[in-house]
Amino acid sequence: MRYGTTTALAGVALTVDAGERVAVLGPSGAGKSTLLAVANGSVTATAGRVEVLGTDPSGLHGRALRQLRARVGTVHQHLELVGQLRVVHNVNAGRLAEWPWWRSAWSLARPQGLPEALEALTRVDLADRAFERTDRLSGGQRQRVAVARLLVQRPELVLADEPASALDPALADRTLGLLAEVATTAGGALVASLHDPALALRHCTRVVGLVEGRVVLDAPTARLTAADLADFYGAPR
Amino acid sequence: MTAVVDRPLVQPRLRRDRTRWAWGLGAVAVVVWSLAGAGLFSGDVANTAGTAQFGRFASAALSPELDGEFLGVLASSVLITVAYAALGAALAVVLGALGAVAVARTTWGPRRLRWTLTRGLLAVPRGLHEAVWGLLLVNVLGLDPWVGVLAIGIPYGAVTAKVFADLLDEVPRTAYSALRAAGAGPVPAALYGLLPPASGGLLSYSFYRLECAIRSAVVLGLIGAGGLGYQLSLSFSSLRWPQVWSCIYALSALCVLAVVAGRAVRLRVASPPSAGGRLRRDPLLTGAVLVTLALVVWSWWYLAISPATLVSDRTGVQLSYVLHAAWPPDAEGSFLREVGSAAVDTVQMSVIAIAVATVGAVLLAGVAAHPAGAVPGGRRLTGTVVRFALLILRAVPPPVWALVLLFVLRPGILPGALALGVYTLGVLGRLAAEATEELDPRPRAALAALGAGPVGGWLYGVLPAATGPVLGFALYRWEVAIRDTVLVGLLGAGGLGALLASRIARFDWGAVTTVLVALVLLTAAVDLISARARQAVR
Fold first, then answer.
1. Disulfide-capable partner of A127 in A78, A102, A122, B356 (CB 3.0 to 4.6 Å)?
2. In terms of pTM, does the model score above 0.80?
């Protein structure tokens, strides 16, 4: 994968099977975000082959592409929520692929699917803020809104870019647990980029280390210790 | 790991923002009232007999008059328009600089009352449209090029004075106070401590005024001052559509040129290149200033303006006659009722115009915005066509649109309102498109990544973020539209403008005073309401 003259990813051969929970570790600029963007189809690989849930997204258009994308849920690094919308609408945005356009429009006036949205917000401890404007929330609260969006989307493949970066340790634990649960319930997989090796060891079944766009580590969590991962962060760039 | 205590879920309530709802419902009510006033619900507003003529007008768009002789005429009228604009803007900047000193907070210090009074005085010249100034001045100066120059210079000067004063007042006081504390007099302290930080803004705004002056010069042409506007109205009244379209294209080109040049200057002022340690002037800015100064001198010569007219005996006699006749204002009950109903018409026209323009702008903004990243060729072509159409809409003055609409609509306030509406759509469409381009694209991209369709993505990713800025622009344009309504009215579309034109034609100066007072009060009221509403939607 290249952006202009910068090669963000090179020689990544990675297969994630259903049921796996993969932590992607690596220093900033290693290509973690690009790897996730390729997987959710928002960027197209300049070389090589990508297959998501059995389909190559670059070959799809229109409705077929949207249907594939609905099965992939992403928690973005910068959250990408709409600040001017109330929290409940940002959560319901997870169902835009499923709803016809008129229901999406009507929902902005009278929130649709309120029980599901509230249940999702309850699970991230934000039910009392459901009708607040999203930009009035703190960074950590917004992160939980993004997770709630994923809970109503119920995707098979969950991609999370630094989902725990703005959270205190207890909440980070719970959030990763929720993301893993979403993936497991739908019989799919979780791929999360993380900075904290301890979280990776606790919640994931496999750890992939990226440095300068290359996979330098790929091992099941069972065979790794916190010390191994600390070494990895010290790997020469 | 901490156990999470299960709290009973208290269903939160959906609380609506009362102020916003009140403004929203009020706006809907006013729009419905205006549409009813325009006769949309009560009668036949379309004039089907004129569709053929409209078709001939529209089809001439593709075959503008390119005959050499006509192009020569067109070129000289472009020069006249440019000359009026340059002189008018130059006068405005001079008046503005003088006036800014008079209305800046710095000048008055703690004397708030006097400051408020001088500021209030400026609202009078600002509240009257350039065309109104033109009509009044023609009666004092006769047919003289000064009419056009003063008609632009006086109202623009008042606006410029206000903006210059604000720019000066916004400069942090510390440097100025330090100089004063060190013993510098007020003028040197202002030269060293206030002017340098404000100079970029002052220059930018001056060039912005020059851009606006071109449009105003065209409008003054429509009421007889010569130039492109005059040529346009001549071709229009002789039903020569190819010529009309040549004028429209020339107008659009002139507007684009003014906007592009103005934007280049403003961008340079906003982010100047590093001088690299040498004492060197910015070539682009120096060039722009020198060219403009040369343009002003040339305009003076080209329009053959003589200061003698301003101080001639005839002017003095005429001025004192008009001023005497204008006082006291006509306050007879029946006339006041006429003014009242004309004011209602004016408000309704401006409201319909803004409603039409806002709806159109919201629908077109997405298409008119420059797309980020690669898009299919069809989308690119649509975007270019829409942007060009918006350009034409705003390049042509609203009275011309009113004449075009009179082919297909019955006379009344509707054609005037729609004419203003399509013109404002041209302006608002561009502003809305720019607002869309400035939005953070990531939320929408995130929605697309989870499979949202184009409508869903727009509703959840673009609309909520764009509503505030677009409504803000729309309310601001309402202030402009109420002034332009007067212009459309002057040329016959009804409302206060039409009333004013008829009283001036009868030399009924007492009545003219009454209408002018009503106009200034109305524009001030609209400014106030719009400012309040903008706070509510922010």
1. A122
2. no
